[in-house]
Amino acid sequence: MSARDLPPLSAVRAFDAAARHGTFTSAADELGMTQSAVSYQIKILEERVGAPLFERHARGVGLTAIGRRFHQRAAAAFDILSDAFGDAKGSTAGTLSISVIPTFATNFLAQNLGAFQLKQADIAVRMEISETLTDFTQDNVDVAIRGGQGQWHGLVSHLLIPTTFTPMLSPALMDRFGGVNKPEDLLKLPILSKDDPWWRIWLAAAGVDDGPSETDISRSFGPQVVEAGAAISGHGVAMLTPAFFRNELERGQLVQPFETIGDDGSGYWLVYPESRRNAVKIRRFRLWIEQETRAYRRT
Question: Which pLDDT score, from 0 to 100, does residue 177 have?
């Protein structure tokens, strides 16, 4: 069996750090090396590759096309090596870092995550709430929960909750306008985020041709959890995903006046890099959250 044609691991570590930070100085700080030592290690690697991996700029460095391709594979290899080492030494514990969008975080994950931590006491969970897409090559994140169609290059995606939606409003607002008896009546009320495409989809499903007019506009509130708060306060009608607001409906804070449900084919997905597919902490979290959300998925 011939030896593998591998570059020095120290050179690849320096390359990975420089690629993530965009400067040799920051890479040196992370690795406890001098800047000249990082530069030397990368020079060794570029000589082995036979092509430049970085473009040098006044304020730092950027990856060349070859460097970008190499870094994607090298970062994935480091992930696999880290997971394999953790398994070998029996260290399945550690911190699971989750990046999650606001509504899912507030109206589902925060309410249920304690159950996961009780079952998996050797895994500490750190949750970051953000609407920004996670860059797994740059951010210190293990898994993310995203909204969309479930197709992201290089990531494994698992559907958790389909993004079905329907109008909801406070009982007080409905009474103030004399009730809501048919879908057209909603257009007489203040509409929250009337430019949301979900409104067009839901109204079409309900058999209503006309959408909200300019005189119906309230203001745009952003994430569902914020719009729900505005709706509960009586500011208008919000288009919301029922799965996230069961408690508010049961307490009578919100009313869902019609059974019609809109569906644009998107959903909330658990995603993580393909290279981390077999990481123990990610596998445990995936199995748990798929079980917790099973009732919400289409059969």
Answer: 87
